[in-house]
Amino acid sequence: MALGLDKLVDVLKTAGEPTRFRLLALLSAGDLTVSDLTEILGQSQPRISRHLKLLSEEGLVERYQEGAWAYFRLKQDGAVSPLARLLLEAAGSQDPVLLRDGERLAEVKRVRAERAQAYFSRNAAEWDELRRLHVSDTAVEEALLRLVGPEPIDALLDLGTGTGLILQLFENLYRRAVGIDASRDMLAVARANLDRTGIMKASVRQGDIFNLPVEAGDFDLVTIHQVLHFLDQPERAIAEAAKVVRPNGRLIIVDLAPHALDYLREEHAHLRLGFSHQTVTEWLEKLGLTVEQVIDLQPGAKAEAPALTVTIWLARAAAVPAGAEMSAPRKSLVSEVAP
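Above: the chain's sequence. Below: its structure in token form.
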């Protein structure tokens, strides 16, 4: 979308102030708080906040809340975004001011990564125990890549993003991505992983899976990976996810098949002991989604007993707007995979 002359001049004036341009450069490298930016630039918090407000008003950066903290990032969409990227590309990569900012940014990210790793290490034993119970993560990832296919994804939403695994898995396919999680500790791990892998087109934010902080119909792929068994009302989470899927977009659910390991309720906070094909398919079809494929990933012969099966459901939203006539759901294709 082309900018009018007045808007173009306003954007250039706003971005052209030295501190604000430095802020744009920093926010193009990931999500940062006012405290982070204050530490990097060595300026007062009120001054940084004022600059961020002006950049936000011109559509150059966006703000989102995470508990008591506000995070900022370079805006990825909108009429102004291409101009912002063009201006940043024009900046000299060897400019001493921007180089110094980059060094300080690297230190902020290093400290952030250390804190995240400390949390991850404290919980690693529990996660390793759960992984041993079912098919390998690699087998699940390979199945997901096959299901999604090679076609580009405009916008991806990952619910219960955890460590940001899905954001990393589909990095080469999506133009932009958002990961939502209720845990600030897990978000810190996900951010550290995105920083480590250099993924700048994805962001993570705190949110309630039953009341998502994103626009309806804004994503062409939504994933819910190993989340539903922690929820008392998983069907509500699926309904909320369905709202943000674009027409003809896809929803992927990965979770455990029905099992009898009741100790997972007490020791690992599982509220549901897996889900049958029929249960999840009925929830999806009631929402007007067509179940295109259901895959069971069964543990190999060498898996520790008792071993759990992981199920993946792939569903698609109707290609017509909500409320319009939709075709009848197709019969789902069920297959089993044993790595």
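The chain is about 45% helix and 20% strand.
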